[in-house]
Specification:
Blueprint: E1 3-7, H1 11-22, E2 27-32, E3 39-40, E4 43-47, H2 48-57, E5 61-64, H3 69-81, E6 85-86, E7 89-90, E8 95-96, E9 101-102, E10 107-108, E11 113-114, E12 119-120, E13 125-126, E14 131-132, E15 137-138, E16 143-144, E17 149-150, E18 155-156, E19 161-162, E20 167-168, E21 173-174, E22 178-180, E23 185-186, E24 194-197, E25 202-204
Parallel strand pairs: 1-2, 1-5, 2-4, 5-6, 7-10, 8-11, 9-12, 10-13, 11-14, 12-15, 13-16, 14-17, 15-18, 16-19, 17-20, 18-21, 19-22, 20-23, 22-24
Antiparallel strand pairs: 3-4, 24-25
Length: about 210
């Protein structure tokens, strides 16, 4: 039996649970701080405050199913400090080149494509039908959203979010803590953290 605990109990967690099922896990549990939730879909929800130690002691694999990058980072770091076995999950309908490096806690969804010589950090989300081309370096806790695309030789810092349908042109550097809105097109390096939108993408007030 393969057992996994998914941190969180939200809509994104449902997708991660399906991903776990397709990766051969037959014992799946969510762990959340809300004691009023006891089921999410067909899977049980355990109380983080009272039950987390049980799953650590019984050597469950762990993955964080929380979409918010700041919270995902905090939860994963806490798991690391407790010695949890944090795994990455790749959908069988994703295409990942043989030499791609994927960090612990990263999830790669259906239809995603990751091309050769790319490094994906830990705790990332490569979402449905997204593509990350050759020789990319994607930092920790990034989210490449549904249908978003990066061209070749893109370097993206930690905690970045490329919104739905967003595009990053080739040979672009993006600094950490950058949010690119849905449909934004990045054609020049981004050196200042913030929120960017439009074609071409420009910084906008938050």
């Amino acid at each position: 039996m393969k057992s996994i605990a998914i941190m969180g109990a939200s809509g994104h967690c449902k997708v991660v649970a399906d991903l776990a099922l397709l990766n051969g896990y037959d014992d799946i549990v969510f762990i959340d701080k809300n004691p009023e939730i006891d089921m999410l879909g067909e899977y049980p929800v355990a109380d983080e405050d009272t039950d987390l130690d049980y799953y650590l002691e019984h050597h469950y694999d762990f993955v964080v199913g929380i979409g918010d990058a700041k919270i995902r980072r905090k939860v994963q770091k806490n798991l690391e400090e407790m010695g949890a076995d944090i795994v990455s999950l790749v959908h069988p309908a994703a295409t990942v080149a043989y030499d791609v490096q994927i960090g612990a806690g990263t999830v790669v969804m259906a239809g995603a494509v990751i091309n050769p010589s790319t490094v994906i950090g830990k705790g990332c989300i490569i979402n449905t039908s997204a593509s990350v081309d050759h020789d990319n370096v994607i930092g920790d806790y990034c989210h490449i959203s549904v249908g978003a695309h990066t061209a070749g030789t893109v370097n993206m810092g930690d905690n970045c979010w490329l919104g739905i349908g967003g595009i990053v042109s080739n040979n672009i550097d993006i600094c950490a803590d950058t949010f690119i809105c849905a449909g934004g097109v990045v054609v020049k390096n981004i050196t200042k953290p913030g929120k960017y939108a439009g074609i071409p993408a420009r910084i906008v007030p938050i």
